[in-house]
Every structure is written in C-alpha cells, then in structure tokens.
Design brief:
Shape: globular
Largest sheet: 6 strands, antiparallel
CATH class: Mainly Beta
Mean pLDDT: 89
Number of domains: 1
Low-confidence stretches: none
Helix content: under 10%
Number of helices: 1
Oligomer: single chain
Radius of gyration: 16 Å
Number of strands: 9
Order of helices and strands: EEEEHEEEEE
CATH topology: Immunoglobulin-like
C-alpha cells in the first residue's frame, strides 16, 4: 500500500491503457523476476484508470523510443493486477496486488525467488509546470524509471 501527499490530484484520463503519465498524476509499479528478462509496468491514475505493459526485455524501451516497436503492442488489455485507490484530503492511497502468474507458471512457489521492484510517481501540479518525478529507486542524473540496476531487490521467504 502506498500513501502519497498531493493537494491537487488530477488526471484527464478517460479509459484504461492510455499513457496515463500524459494525462496527469500517476503511480507506477515496475516488477521483474530476477531470473527473467520480461518485466511489468503498471500505472494507476487518481480516477481508477490503469495502464498495463509487459516489456519483453530492457532493450525494448530503446526500440519503442526509436519507433521500431509500437507501445500499443506491449499493452495488456485483460486486467492483470488488482488495486484500489482513494483520496482523503491531501492524501492519495493506492493498494495493489500483483499475482505471481505474470512471470511464473501456476503452482510455482515464490519461496526462494527474488524480484526487482520500483515504485514511482508523476506528480502534476499544473499544465504549465513539468511534473515532479519521484521513486523508491535511487536514480542518479536523469531520472529513468526503467533503469533496472537502480531497482530494489525483493526476496520471497
């Protein structure tokens, strides 16, 4: 569960799988099983809209930027993760649940596995100002949420 402070939550997103960071505030979840190259990127907007992307590997971000791969091809349209979100005053709360089946065959135990994770945020205050970017990862220099060497290791016992 995440608790974020924001005196002016905003999004103009109207449907799931829009590029939510283009529409206002968004909370992002990045996950990868350390034994796989595939990773997941999940977004939640303040109005309950979601974006779900499955990246085949870390190099695909460059191929998308170079327009060799369409971002639409990475979108997952059936809901993968469950979440609830709500706001109270200047607080925004997000509670998410991600099933292990996004990376592992059914019945595969998580015990002993390691996932890499990063939780990030676009915080918009107005259309005239760029968003404030923040993350649980210690990004140095230019913030790149996809920079996996900065992600945190999660070990399952």
């Amino acid at each position: 569960m995440g608790e974020l402070t924001d005196p002016h939550l905003y999004t103009s997103a109207t449907e799931d799988n829009q590029i939510l960071c283009s529409f206002g505030d968004v909370f992002e979840i990045f996950l990868r099983d350390s034994e796989l190259e595939t990773y997941a990127e999940f977004h939640v907007a303040p109005n309950g809209k979601r974006l779900q992307l499955l990246w085949p590997d870390a190099e695909t971000i460059r191929r998308v930027q170079d327009k060799k791969v369409a971002l639409d091809d990475l979108k997952v349209h059936e809901p993968i993760f469950d979440f609830s979100q709500w706001s109270e005053g200047e607080k925004w709360y997000i509670c998410a649940s991600v099933p292990s089946r996004i990376f592992l065959p059914p019945g595969t135990p998580l015990e002993g596995r390691t996932w890499m994770a990063s939780f990030s945020r676009y915080d918009y205050s107005s259309a005239e100002e760029p968003p404030v970017l923040s993350s649980t990862s210690p990004h140095t220099g230019k913030v790149s949420f996809h920079c996996q060497q900065d992600w945190t290791e999660l070990s399952f016992c």
